[in-house]
Amino acid sequence: MELTEALARKFAQTALGHVAREYPNKLDHVMGGDADASTPRELHPAFFGSYDWHSCVHGWWTLLTLRRLWPEMPEAAQIDALAQTTFTDPNLAEELAYIERPDARGFERPYGWAWLLFLHHEAARHKDRAWAQRLEPLANTFVERFKTYLPILTYPITVGTHYNTAFALALTRDWADERDPDLLRLIDRWANQAFDSKSHYTGWEPGGDEFLSPVLTASLLMSKVMPRDQFEPWFDRLVVSNGWLERECHPVTVSDRSDGKIAHLDGLNLSRAWCLRGIAATLGQSESSTLLESRAKAHFDAALPHVAGDYMGEHWLASFALLAMLADQQSNLR
Predict the structure, then answer these.
(1) Is 191 a member of any domain?
(2) Which domain holds residue 272?
(3) Is the pLDDT confidence value at 331 over 70?
């Protein structure tokens, strides 16, 4: 699971091929009248590509991350040039105006919100460019939406798709750490209320079109929220001592990669690898770590050959492969 230059270039070429590709496109767009009928590029001058808005956002996270990690690869210059013409003040002002529409209150909640914050988090590492400064108004708007949304979200959403709460908060918490102590406290308090009492997971996983594991995304979030000495027994009660991790957590089969929903299952293999590696990094040397790392590698190896090939997966899977490969660096050791 090493990010070699060859793999970084492959991921970069894949993402460069879709972040500025307008069609096919699936809009998350509420129309209040005829005047709201517009093309993706008209609605979203920065994030019109990659089949849908959130995939374009995390496609850009992939590109900026690869530019930072492999600045000398040929694709780094292409990423820089395209970002300079994409992350302009006029483009991002239009993106902000769109999400401030009254009809856009639920736009991309919470998945796209979290990915935009994670993109901003990465952009801030590129000190030679003003990308983070230009993205900041969008980021601040989604921060305020999280602060309004979490207090009214009585129960966690634990599906394995875009509405999953724990996944969004795992990314958002990384943005909030050292940036926004109020949001950090809100996330930690909400996560503890939602998941602290959970134990002995028996959910029916996987679902046929899921790209997230409900239990592992919650576990990854709690590995960031809980001190290690509390997290380890909590995780053991949840999925280790009842045998779920060893018995059920195996790579899943993808029957038709041209079907966008079924292709989600490649993402499940990659997101499980990300969660398993992140949790293992938090636990350090423990009885569970060897199993976690072994299962992470098996899931990753099952999906990596399919990151590119069919556009239904190609427009988003590289981001999840990169999350998995960098998981041990992203974990907040406590």
Answers:
(1) no
(2) 198-334
(3) no
